[in-house]
Design goal:
Blueprint (H helix, E strand, L loop, with lengths): L1 H6 L4 H5 L4 H13 L3 H13 L11 H15 L7 H14 L3 H12 L4 H5 L5 H14 L5 H13 L4 H12 L1
Helix pairs in contact: 3-9, 3-11, 5-9, 9-11
Pfam family, one: DUF533
InterPro entries: TerB-like, YebE
């Protein structure tokens, strides 16, 4: 569903990306971290494992669920899900072939979204933090103070460097 939700965006980088949604999240997160010291260790680990920093196959089900929780929480940061956001969620469910169980899970998350601390406590490394932040950022167009505050609070809870969030914003604006 992360993949389908990211693909429903119609602006900027996501609209023109040939990558799938999850690969886009991983790629943006990796690029955002590239200038930090944490990224150097991640690239070294990826080389040892025989993967690339853009390899989304290493994203497990728990991390994908955390990404979804972050996306839903970001969507609700301003206190409501506007028509465009709801359509994006519904289209993503349909595109991902999510059944009734998935829809019930989404409705439960919409009724009681995770807070930034709940999201951050499941994160175990800087790369995962960047991916989760990127997913949350891609879920919304931060056009309200509450949404911008949510993203700032999430970045702080995830211990994500300011330079990484600025780079992600610059990439999304391109």
């Amino acid at each position: 569903m992360v993949d389908a939700l990211v693909r429903t965006r119609r602006t900027g980088l996501a609209a023109t990306a040939a990558l799938g949604g999850l690969a886009l999240v991983v790629g943006l997160a990796t690029k955002a971290l590239r200038t930090t010291s944490a990224s150097k260790s991640a690239e070294a680990s990826a080389e040892k494992a025989g993967t690339t920093p853009f390899d989304h196959a290493t994203v497990g089900e728990d991390e994908a669920r955390t990404m979804l929780r972050a996306m839903v929480a970001a969507t609700l940061a301003d206190g409501l899900v506007d028509a465009g956001e709801r359509k994006r969620l519904d289209d993503a469910l349909a595109a991902a072939g999510i059944g009734d169980d998935g829809r019930r899970w989404l409705e439960a998350e919409l009724a009681d979204p995770a807070d930034t601390d709940d999201i951050a406590e499941r994160v175990t490394n800087p790369e995962q933090a960047a991916r989760i932040y990127a997913a949350a950022r891609l879920a919304i167009d931060p056009d309200t103070l509450q949404e911008r505050t949510f993203l700032k609070d999430l970045a702080d809870a995830l211990d994500l460097p300011d330079e990484a969030t600025h780079r992600l914003e610059a990439d999304l604006a391109a």
